[in-house]
Predict the structure.
Amino acid sequence: MFAHLSKIIYGMKIQSLIVAGLLFSIFSCSGPQEDHSLDLTLDSTKSTNETKEISDDLYFQEIDPDSIQPLPSPLQIVMRFKQTGMKYDHRLPYKPENLANAERYFDRLILNGFLSADFVYLVANKQTGECPKYIKALRDNSAAIGFGDIVNTEYNIKRIENNLNNIDSIAYIASEIQMNTDRYFRENNDYLRGLIVFSGAWIETLHLVLNSPDLNDNFDAVRAISDQLDVANHILENFQLFKIDSSKEISQLKQHIQSIKLRLEILHDYTEKEDLVMWKKELDNLKNTVESIRNYYIIQ
């Protein structure tokens, strides 16, 4: 099934940052840096000065679409880990009821990514009873951040609800929606918001995987985690395309991705050497880093 799913998702050249991936596209329609020092100190204080804290001039920057590095979707990443035997844990997804406490626009972008990743995690694990509240949260939040009118949201949500037990059908539906959303991003130079949402989805996906039961005894899963280094590099290369220094929040997000990347580099090295003792230790370090970053964005 995964091979078929990959063909659907990657059959198209991803030229724009519809990168929040399949679920972002569905519901939003309702070079590596020089400094390699391992500074993982996280800023625990959030700016209170950005509420639509970031100007439209910052979000809507004109760039060359061909310069954007392709990124996988949350669905593709989750299915890759599902293939390795990743087990479901109901305690891990973000709680949609906490979304009401998110007052800042930037937080809503990040949390849209969280909800997208959690939704595909539920679908991949056949937890369809939990899906409706995530569908509602994604629909409402997408409207709040300004993506509600890109395509026929209610129509597409109904299609997804009718196919929750068929992940290939969800992938096919998303591939159709992707073309419309892709065109929207190109015409409106709206790539940066897509990159922010994707970053949130990627962080949440790592959280789900790194907290999976029995992970330490699953070398295939650990190798799949270390392969996320390529994704981290592509995210950072895409951020380099934008002028973001005026935004503390976006600059902080970029720093968070850099911190994860540095941990992934170390893990990747140990998995290549099949150093069992060291990759287990580094896996814990990566998990602690991801959890600290995720907690920074969680709105209780």
